[in-house]
Amino acid sequence: MSEQDSPVFPPNFFESCPWSIQNDFQSLKEVGKGKDTVIYSAVCLPLGNKIVAVKIYDKSRLASTKVRAIKREVAMMLYFMRHRYPNVVELYGAFEDESRYFIVMEYCSVGTVEYMAPEVIALPPVDAVVSGQVRASEIPPNTEKVDIWALGVTFFELVTGRLPFEGKDKLEIKTNITEYRMSGFGPHVSAQCQDLIRSMLAYDPADRPSAEELLQHSFLALYRNKGAAPAFESSLGGSSSPGPSVRLGRLKSWSRASSTVSSKAGRWEERGA
């Protein structure tokens, strides 16, 4: 693999950016928080007053492994931009001061509604938080259970060739999610597979399994000790369900491409760090 085809962290990348949080950004509003970072929306003056998202990391709270992870994140975003991958958040820049790292990227006001859990849809719009109509401190935090839901949507799509909550537009999709109007699986999906997916798509987050609990499900246990991923094809009805077969073919093509990117990501190079 050539160096140009690998995710690379450029030498002195943080130091080379002339931006400062005090002089180049205005109207900072907290819109999210993680274990190691706080995310703000802001107006970036050097980008023509463009609204951006700014991730801020406190250096005093970061272990060396986390600093490496931050640099890897930057390297991967640069890699995706260089290869023009679609539907990837754009990186605008990164810089640092004595106490913090800053990553400036595209501000996304909405997500993919088809994969949103009911509790995510119930949240106020980001614009309401940015404008101050709703305080970020008033919003109940979501947990990893929203990711379990999104993974359940992916599994459903894999075995049926369609989304569990459909609609002619985003509003109808949101309504079907909040009112829990889920599509049927069809007779070609096994009872064990259905039970797995239904548990992940439980309306109440408390009723969804954790990632650890999910791995103990009987459907996954069938394959856990065989050194292979679950054979979702075995849950399908072969030629009697051409839609899922077509979708599986596309998924395999995507999987091969994803494996290539993951392989390259695993060998990313850090230069001048």
TrEMBL record:
Renumbered to this chain, region (Disordered) spans 231-273
- In this chain the Protein kinase domain maps to 1-220
Q: Does the keyword Transmembrane helix apply?
A: no
**Which InterPro entries does the UniProt entry name for this protein?**
Aur-like, Kinase-like_dom_sf, Prot_kinase_dom
Q: Where is the composition biased (Low complexity)?
A: 234-248
Task: Could you list this entry's UniProt keywords, alphabetically sorted.
Answer: ATP-binding, Kinase, Nucleotide-binding, Serine/threonine-protein kinase, Transferase
Q: Molecular function (GO) terms listed?
A: ATP binding; protein serine/threonine kinase activity
Q: Looking at the Swiss-Prot or TrEMBL record, what is one Pfam family this protein matches?
A: Pkinase
Protein's name in the database: Ribosomal protein S6 kinase alpha-3
